[in-house]
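Quick board copy: two proteins, each given as sequence then tokens.
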Amino acid sequence: MYTSFTTQLLVVIYSLFLCFSIPLSAQSTIQFVGAPAAKAHIQQVIKEAYVPGISLSVIEQGELAFMEGFGTKSLDTGGAVDPYTIFAAASLSKPVFAYAVMQLVDAGQLDLDRPLYQYLPYPDAAEDERYQQITARMLLSHSGGFPNWRRSRALSILFDPGTAFQYSGEGYVYLMKVVEKITGKDLNTFMQERVFTPLGMQRSSYVWEERFEDNYAIPHTKLYKTAGHRKPSKSNTAYSLQTCLHDFTLFMQALLEGKHLKPSTHQLMLRPQVEVETNELGTVSWGLGVGLQETDAGVSLWQWGDNGTFRCYMLAYPASKTALVYFTNSAMGQSICGSLLEGLLGGTYPAVVWNNYYTYKAPIFKATRGILDHGIQKGMADFMHPSGEHQDTSIIEEQTMNRIGYQLLNLDKRAEALQIFQWNLKAYPNSPNAYDSYAEALLMDGQQQEAAAYYAKSIAMGSDNPTAVTISENLKSRYAVGNTTFELNSYQLASSVFLAGSFNDWNTLSHPCIFKNGKWICRVQLEPGTYEYKFLVNGVWIPDPDNPERKAERPYNSILVVE
């Protein structure tokens, strides 16, 4: 077996780390409150948090104690959530895959400490020779050095592999490719054979299947609106798992038991491999495929899932074989995590603190919902300074107020958003960011010259936003310069139109169009080449209706060739 000096050193470090960790046999004081209390608590929480639907189960001493769905699959079309309703598992995809990977370790098909490039070279990361140090152990514990997701074709390495923690979906994708190479099977086939079929998970897959159409949840935004539902056609071990509560509960029982794993492998999976954080509630670390936390109640494993509008959570105490799993069809699904764990099981959760999600009781949510439900004056009444001129900054500080404003802008509540940004300006009159944000709201409202003035103030105060400089210059010039003219000959009633494309890195603000003589116009200085572009009309993307040129693989973008 190939073993580098770095790998040997890491094994020593891991061994020392294990010696001083809290043993899995520690007694847990966690206790389920029982079904009646659980139902009442869940119903109250999802009502207050505006979560349309949730499915949740609890395991005690390895046996199912509670499993039920609450709420609706869709605010638009209805349907009750039940334990067989399909949800996107998001990052809960990762521990299921890790469980299967550890079976390969048991079978001698994968060595946790052998550099993965020896199984499968990875050109995406090969520009950095440190990638040859990366092992399965590192990727399972998020210590391989990859970012969560790359921003360019090349995959960067942020630190020496094995020396720190960085949560990474990219790492799981590389490991997926290695597993596919070792087994000669695509991910979904491999997972069906290793996990889904043996455990009886009949409604689970890493790609969307037609059989799910009979019962699936529609995602919702933080502001209680349905969102687009993506049905993955390609497997991705980091996030594409489609599953239901019933199936995932079977997985959690198997994980607690170490089913289909050697006892030593099971113990290794649930031991710390890399430290993450120590906070006032305890310590957070990462095992092989699962997060770990240590408190007075003992060691628990956990993982959260978040793809924006589906959010979920799993938690388990190996010593007592107690676990809780839930899935929601809402971007608010992480805001209820702490309340559900504490309300149903008791205990404290340092990983919830580490995740740093707003709770549903936070002013940003309460104020925004209040504005939508009751209007801006009544909705903000509990959050205003006694003067009435701006918010109480001890409750809602600058950045939170900005986020409320942007949420309202996204809902096309421009008048309310402008008022929020104006109040923020009065509360923080020396903030370039406050001027910049107010300028953006004016721009979205079609008040271009007013926006230019506030952008100029922001720049004069030292704004470090390069987009503000570009917008300010474009608005002042009224597009008198530029060798390429873009015209939109419709949408005369639109309040704002922007041009975005490959020439400005798809910046949605930097090139506002000017309405003149019945059409929207934007001039851009372009070098010879081929560009993709489209218009953003009142927040909605459209290709150029007067330009039929498209690429077959991206028909939603227009093509322009500059000679």
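And the next:
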Amino acid sequence: MEMFKIMRMAALGKPEKFFKMIAWTIIEYLLRGLPFGISLLIIWELFIPLTHPGEILNISKIIIACSGLLAGLILLYFASRKAYFASFLTGYEITAAGRKKIIKHLKQLPMGFYNSRDPGDIGAYIVTDYKNIEELTTHMIPQFFGAMAMPVILVCSLFFYNWKLALAALIPIPVAYPLLKLTNWLVMTVGKHHQKITIEAASRMLEYIQGIHLIKAFNLNASKFSRLENSFRRLKNISIKMESIPGSAIAISSIILNSGIILIILYGFRMLQSNEIPLPIYILFLVMGIHIYQPFINAITFLAEINYMKLGVKRTDSLLHTPVLTSKDNCDTVTNFNLSIKNIYFKYHNTPVIDGISLEIPEKSLTAFVGPSGSGKTTLTRLISRFWDVDRGEITLGGLNIESYNPETLMSQIAIVFQDVYLFNDTIYNNIRIGREDATDEEVMAAAKLARCHEFITSLPQGYQSMVGEGGCTLSGGEKQRISIARAILKDAPIILLDEATASLDPENELSIQRAINDLIKDKTVIMIAHRLHTIQAADQIFVIDNGKVTESGKHTDLLQQNGLYKALWDEQQKQKSWKF
């Protein structure tokens, strides 16, 4: 039942996908035993003249047996071929479907899932865990059933010749069973620690790579990066335990099982002396006995590996049961784009971030959020786009709670331009086309022109087909930001969220991007987070957010007259203009 459960989880609820590969693997293993069976028939014929003087050796039977052996070897070739392709094609199909489902599921999870985990932990689902599942589906499970099939058939066959000696041959199996259970327990116990430390080491390695510029700047190296060094040391120690502790139990199990050959020799010899069995039967048990225990030993090894790899199956199964963002009413239509935030509260890791905010954002208006860093501005925009769900209160779009819309419908209405732009390691063309995958070449170029990036793109050797590198590392910050705006223009969503899109740019780039933003936000419902207050003077309304609350609101001139936090921020930025070095 446990094996069936593993198969069900690995195949995403369709264990029948394994049946074909298991069936062909069993046939292959049975055909592997055919040469031994035919060899025994030949030995039997050779013994007839010895045990029955006067009998003539039947050459024709031996020729027929050899012909049968040849036919069996041909069948073995075809069965092995079928088993090979059934195992690998089906196994890779299962893992490919599983990886796609994991990726799709990850996209539907709230952002809180990612913020509560190390990057290595999330990456392990696709890389480490599914590597184990791939090994499980293509090798371990079919090979385990194949290894079990051959000795079972052999033992059943031996019962027809002499049940007493066959029963004696089975004695080591129940004796070794407790060690099998112990092996599985050790694998599960040590394996959980091994899996945890492997993921931790992967996270520390990612941390080291992502911070390599700081490590180089301060002349550090891996040996001085103690978190990385310690994680690798723990991984080495647990890996040794993972191999040695269960390995000892498997070795003892092998000794116990192989002791069955001694039982067959001694007990069979006594039966031979007392004329309970003829010499050919005794030789038959000696030859067949050797091939009973080795497959069992292989099956124990397979089972130990299966028990370790099922930890990855359980992790991915647990991930797939992690609740995704769902829709309460499956609404697919947005009637208007008025946004209303009604007394919402939100905690991040039990730390209050949004504390009872209420505000109205009319359709086709420009709304700005300003305030100190960490005041909750970005979190508020993420709640509007439903990266997280609020703890209390509600956010409505067109009069409906945003939780009533299908997540895909909601996101199709929103375009986001982040402060920290991420570009995929792909062409510029494909990075812009993310905004709308069915866009034509002309539409992509039109969006690029509006975003003021067409000129620099066409100056590159490959133009729109130029690769941008991981994260867009081959482009400047201003160039990446303009590409980000181009894909937002291409998406043409009615709601635009701008998260400090010009905060870290030089004046020249800021001017180009500000012009691009002006083209982006025409006739849109726009929410802008800004630190540079001169960029939002024309906003229809400005909300000052401090410590998760709205402390001031109004137009630019109104807020200056209130003589509050906004006025203090404005005056400070005006002073900066006169700074000289």
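Board note added afterward: The first strand starts at residue 339 and ends at 348.
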